[in-house]
């Protein structure tokens, strides 16, 4: 569940917190001063720091700056000073949360879980690419299918990628060089004739009359474009 570093000059408090945190499933390290805590954290980086703002030696706010700038670790302030100004200043300087003493252990655990959840959000799966719709033509990158009206169209992977390039920007004109880069890749060393050949094959599969194309149109001296039907 993660390693928590407890920083408090009260040895009894450190032992009590350590015991309760371990019972909750966390690993625990502890230090009596901010200086010792920083040294310990550099050797074994924690997932979260519980920092008593009133620890001796280095000021708690200075320690917070070090934990944030050097380790990027979330910090929860533990403070017996209830003045709201202290808490607000601490949060403005980068503390992720604060808990005032004396505190209920269940409340502290809830704060710890919330901070760890915020600092380690679940990985978001990339959303599936949406189907490209150009008139009556629907190209679905996810299922790698093409439909014209209710009729499926069988394409080779290269033909599919060529059509997908056109469908990504309907009515836009693509030059031969753009098509080579997008479909065959920037490292392609072959002849541009390959584009003309694949355009012909694609027209044979998606045009009613490949000799009089209405979908993939030639723009003389410029390139090709896909027109919705």
Would you kindly provide a brief summary of this structure?
With 229 residues, this protein is of the alpha/beta class.
Write the CATH architecture name of the largest domain: 3-Layer(aba) Sandwich
How many beta-strand segments?
11
Radius of gyration from CA coordinates: 31 Å
Q: Let me know the largest β-sheet.
A: 5 strands, parallel
Task: List the total number of helices.
Answer: 8
CATH superfamily of the largest domain: Response regulator
Shape: rod-shaped
Task: Walk me through the topology.
Elements: E1 3-7, H1 11-23, E2 27-31, H2 34-43, E3 48-52, H3 60-71, E4 75-79, H4 84-92, E5 97-100, H5 105-119, E6 132-134, E7 137-140, E8 145-148, E9 151-153, H6 157-168, H7 176-184, H8 193-206, E10 216-219, E11 223-226
Parallel strand pairs: 1-2, 1-3, 3-4, 4-5
Antiparallel strand pairs: 6-7, 7-8, 8-9, 10-11
Helix pairs in contact: 2-3, 6-7, 6-8
Report on the structure:
This protein is α/β, with parallel strands linked by helices. The protein folds into two domains: 117 residues, Response regulator (Rossmann fold, 3-Layer(aba) Sandwich), CATH 3.40.50.2300; 95 residues, Winged helix-like DNA-binding domain superfamily/Winged helix DNA-binding domain (Arc Repressor Mutant, subunit A, Orthogonal Bundle). 41% of the residues lie in helices and 20% in strands. The protein is built from eight helices and eleven strands. The strands form three sheets. It has a five-stranded parallel beta sheet with strand order 2-1-3-4-5, with helices on both faces. The longest helix is centred in the middle third of the chain and has 15 residues. It is rod-shaped and about 90 Å long. 23% of the residues are buried.
């Amino acid at each position: 569940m993660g390693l928590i570093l407890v920083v408090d000059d009260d040895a009894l408090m450190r032992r009590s917190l350590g015991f309760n945190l371990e019972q909750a499933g966390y690993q625990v390290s502890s230090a009596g001063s901010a200086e010792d805590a920083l040294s310990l954290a550099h050797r074994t980086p924690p997932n979260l720091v519980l920092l008593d703002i009133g620890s001796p030696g280095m000021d708690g706010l200075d320690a917070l700056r070090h934990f944030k700038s050097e380790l990027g670790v979330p910090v929860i302030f533990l403070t017996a000073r209830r003045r709201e100004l202290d808490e607000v200043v601490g949060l403005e300087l980068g503390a992720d949360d604060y808990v005032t003493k004396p505190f209920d252990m269940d409340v502290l655990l809830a704060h710890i879980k919330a901070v760890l959840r915020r600092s380690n959000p679940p990985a978001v799966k990339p959303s599936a690419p949406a189907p490209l719709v150009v008139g009556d033509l629907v190209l679905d990158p996810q299922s790698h299918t093409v439909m014209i009206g209710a009729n499926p169209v069988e394409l080779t992977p290269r033909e599919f990628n060529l059509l997908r390039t056109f469908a990504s920007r309907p009515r836009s004109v693509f030059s031969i060089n753009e098509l080579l880069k997008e479909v065959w890749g920037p490292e392609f060393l072959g002849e541009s004739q390959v584009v003309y050949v694949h355009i012909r094959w694609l027209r044979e599969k998606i045009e009613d009359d490949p000799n009089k194309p209405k979908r993939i149109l030639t723009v003389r001296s410029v390139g090709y474009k896909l027109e919705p039907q």
